[in-house]
Amino acid sequence: MGYFNALAIWRAGGRAVRITANDIVPADSLDALVIGGGDDISPRLYHHELQVGIRIDPVRDNLEFGYLERATARRIPIMGTCRGAQILNVFRGGSLHPEIKDAYEGVRKRSTVLPRMGVNIVNDSQLYNMLGAGRCYVNALHHQSINRLGEAMTVSARDDDGIVQGVDCQLSELVFGVQWHPEFLVFDRSQQNLFRRVVESV
Fold this sequence. Notes:
Blueprint: H1 3-11, E1 33-35, H2 58-74, E2 78-81, H3 83-91, E3 96-97, H4 100-103, E4 112-121, H5 126-131, E5 135-140, E6 145-146, E7 153-159, E8 164-169, E9 175-178, H6 189-200
Parallel strand pairs: 1-2, 2-9
Antiparallel strand pairs: 3-6, 4-5, 4-7, 7-8, 8-9
């Protein structure tokens, strides 16, 4: 749990607890699970070859899979941002594009903390209901993207290049992920509504 995620949860009225391999918190004590950004997910988890030069964290992968299993079994809210959205999809049996530029010909490299990427939100999705709009502008700090959807996962947002930017899980009332970092968009009330909705649902 990064500082900005913890701050966003605090601003929404919640209390964040940071979990790492060295700081384990009982999964059954959590009211909701928020998984943030970080290193790439091991391609072996979605049956893809490991590429040279990428940073992976198998310990974190296993840790998050364990928490996702318990959170799913208990049907508590789950929110994933960037890597968190990706691992949610992989946990559900989906796959990723290891490199966006290899999967989408002609797409420019995207790397900005500023809200410069246009995203189209699917009507009646969980994300649409939380943002209250069919389009928004967000940041982009990822080089991977969701490929094949996992079980019960649906697309809730795509950018103007057609790349998946948001997903919902249909098995629970509030399980979703976004490829961007709403925690960095501290002055965007609609983006902060994502955290507010999670806190208010527990």
